[in-house]
Specification:
Blueprint: H1 7-19, H2 67-77, H3 81-90, H4 96-99, E1 107-108, E2 114-118, H5 123-128, H6 135-145, E3 159-163, H7 177-194, E4 198-202, H8 204-211, H9 216-219, E5 224-226, E6 229-234, H10 237-242, H11 247-262
Parallel strand pairs: 2-3, 2-4, 4-6
Antiparallel strand pairs: 1-3, 5-6
Length: 263
């Protein structure tokens, strides 16, 4: 007969899971991911394939789907932001969607002069279905308020916010290059449809996706061009929470943004 597990042992097991990154239960019921169907049908076994006769046409293997090409096609077909959000929700090739609670599309005023592009949703964003609502997002709101801007203002003083990835990576890990490549056509279409005057690229991964290079501590504060419009690389608010001394750099960048908007 098995001995009952003590409360101390259960607590130790839970603490171990937290250390491994299992910090929340995603679904209401358990899900056996080994039982999920493959995205591509398995190859037919040799027993089920009949060898062609002399007069048979040659067998041609079906072409594999290119997730990036499909993303480009689906993004290009979206005529407005609502259609783009629907296309993202229907895009089946990014496995991040399987572990996320919500698709995090955008927040703020789409008619805003400034569009902020971040990295990916965190736990609070995944729960709320909105970008930048956790601790880093609250800091971002205070930063914007310091120069008279917010996501809730009228278009002249508003911001529009999105991320490179619309689904939360497990345990808030960094985006994989393949994930960024699949989502980049949607991000570019998002920018084209919103048509902001200025882009603010928050952090290394937004800069890597839209500028093709990283090194945010060197790039921050130096204006660049992305998607045919001025782009300002800035330190991500999550970085500022870890490195408070860098807030003075962020303040300098905010003043540069305000000056550009007044010009």
């Amino acid at each position: 007969m098995l001995e009952p597990i003590s409360p101390a042992a259960l607590r130790a097991a839970l603490e171990w899971q937290l250390e491994m990154g299992c910090d929340e239960a995603i679904g209401e019921a358990p899900l056996n991911r080994y039982a999920l169907p493959d995205r591509m049908p398995p190859a037919a076994s040799a027993a089920n394939v009949t060898a062609p006769g002399p007069a048979s046409a040659p067998m041609v293997a079906p072409a594999a789907t290119d997730p990036v090409a499909e993303a480009e096609r689906m993004a290009a077909e979206a005529g407005d932001l609502a259609a783009l959000q629907a296309a993202l929700a229907a895009y089946p090739w990014c496995d991040l969607r399987l572990g996320a609670r919500n698709l995090v599309f955008s927040d703020g005023d789409p008619a805003a002069r400034v569009m902020i592009v971040g990295e990916a949703p965190g736990r609070e964003e995944d729960r709320a279905g909105r970008p930048f609502v956790g601790q880093a997002g609250q800091l971002l709101d205070r930063m914007l308020a310091a120069i008279g801007m917010s996501r809730d203002s009228e278009a002249r003083d508003a911001v529009y916010i999105t991320n490179v990835l619309p689904w939360r990576p497990p345990s808030n890990r960094d985006p994989e290059p393949e994930e960024t490549a699949m989502m980049l056509p949607f991000v570019r279409r998002h920018i084209a449809l919103a048509d902001p005057e200025i882009l603010v690229l928050m952090g290394n991964h937004a800069c890597g996706a839209l500028l093709g290079r990283k090194g945010i501590t060197r790039m921050r504060g130096h204006w660049a061009e992305a998607e045919g419009r001025p782009a300002l690389p800035m330190l991500h608010p999550a970085y500022l929470l870890r490195q408070p001394a860098a807030k003075r750099d962020a303040w300098a960048d905010l003043l540069s943004l305000a000056a550009r908007l007044r010009a």
